[in-house]
Each structure stands twice: as structure tokens, then as C-alpha cells.
Amino acid sequence: MDTHAKRIGILGGCFNPIHLGHLILAENARQVFELDQVLFIPCGTPAHKSTAGLIPAANRLAMIRLAIADNPAFTVSEIETARDGISYAVDTVSTLRKMEPDSEFCFIIGADSLMELHLWRQIYTLLTLCRFLTFCRPGIDLSGLRPADLRLDPPWGERLIQDIRQGLLIDISSSSIRHRAAEGLSIRYLVPEAVARYITEYKLYC
């Protein structure tokens, strides 16, 4: 009998809009950490970012669905967009664990988020609920990172450092895509074609 617990990656963010960098990160994490599924979770009201320029959740969800339609390992959740108030990771993961108690949840983050984890709401509770998988972004080198640098009580610094991997060097940002769309510049090859068509059809970011 197969006793393998389902391993689910969580990729959160505004996804304003989703782009190829998000998809490459998700696929890389799926392969490197042998994830069975990657769950894209767009935020409702973000805890650590401004909501200026954030388009409605319905549009962001629609673009994610278009972007991941051809990958059976990718799914999207409305768990945060359906929730009132600020989206906190600890609440999201707690709810997911209640929904799938036999699954292992792994939070996929970038190096910038890793350095700020000590500021996250109820971080020590969150650390017991899920594993954090960190991927270094272009221009960021964490080879000399020490556990104490993460400003977390032992043993969490050491555990987090063990799950750092080098990400693929794809430097694409949602903000640059929004800027290009507003200027009438091409966003081809930055987002999936279906997402580009959706942005044009609904005149987003203009």
C-alpha cells in the first residue's frame, strides 16, 4: 500500500498579473521538492503590500486559471480572495490543513520573503504547520547566510537554510508588466498568450 503523504506546494501572491516567472518557479519547486501539486493562492487584501493598482480578485483568478490550464499538477484556490480582511499565511495554512489533514504543505517563497519571515504574523505557529521552500532570485546570493541572520529562534534558522535552492534566472515582475501594458508595449513572452489576450480584452492596467 502506498503510504506517501500528498505533498502540496503553496504559491501565494497578488498575481497582478500572473506571469511566466511564477509558472517557472512553481514547476521548478514541483520537480526539485517532488511536490504532487502546486496550489496558486491569490491574496485578497495583502498583508505586506500596498493595494494600489490591485485589480479585482475575479480578474486575477481568471488569469491564473488560463495560465495553468495545461498543467494537471497546478490548481488555484479562492481561500484568500473569499475571505474578508487581510490575508495572513497562518490562517490560510491552518484552514488548508483542516481541509486535508493527511497532506504535507510546503510554502514556496523567494529569498526576499525568507529574510522577512520573522515579521510574519504568528510565524512560530506557521513554521509548525508547513515547510518553507526558498528559491533564490536573480542577483541574490544566500551562500553565506547563517541561521542567526534570519532572526528566528533555534532550530528554525537551520531548518530554513536547508531548504534553500537556486532558482532559474528569470527576472520578470508583475509591476513591469503592468507598466508595459499601460504604455501600450508588448507583454508577449512575459505572460502566457491566453493571459495576454485576457489583459487586452478587458483593458486591464491601461
List the keywords:
alpha/beta, Rossmann fold, 8 helices, 8 strands, 36% helix, globular
Mean pLDDT rating: 94
Give unreliable regions as ranges.
none
State the helical fraction. 25-40%
Could you name the CATH homologous superfamily? HUPs
Main β sheet profile: 6 strands, parallel
H and E string? EHEEHEEHEHHEHEHH
Total beta-strand segments = 8
Descriptive notes:
This protein has about 210 residues and is an alpha/beta fold. It is about 35% helix and about 15% strand. It is built from 8 helices and 8 strands, in the order βαββαββαβααβαβαα. The chain has helices at about 20-30, 55-70, 90-100, 110-115, 125-130, 155-160, 175-180, 195-200, and strands spanning about 5-15, 35-40, 45, 75, 85, 105-110, 130-135, 165. The strands form 2 sheets. The protein has a 6-stranded parallel sheet, sandwiched between helices. The protein has a two-stranded parallel sheet with strand order 3-5. α2 runs antiparallel to α8 (about 195-200) and α3 runs parallel beside α5 (about 125-130). The N and C termini lie far apart (about 55 Å). The relative contact order is 0.18.
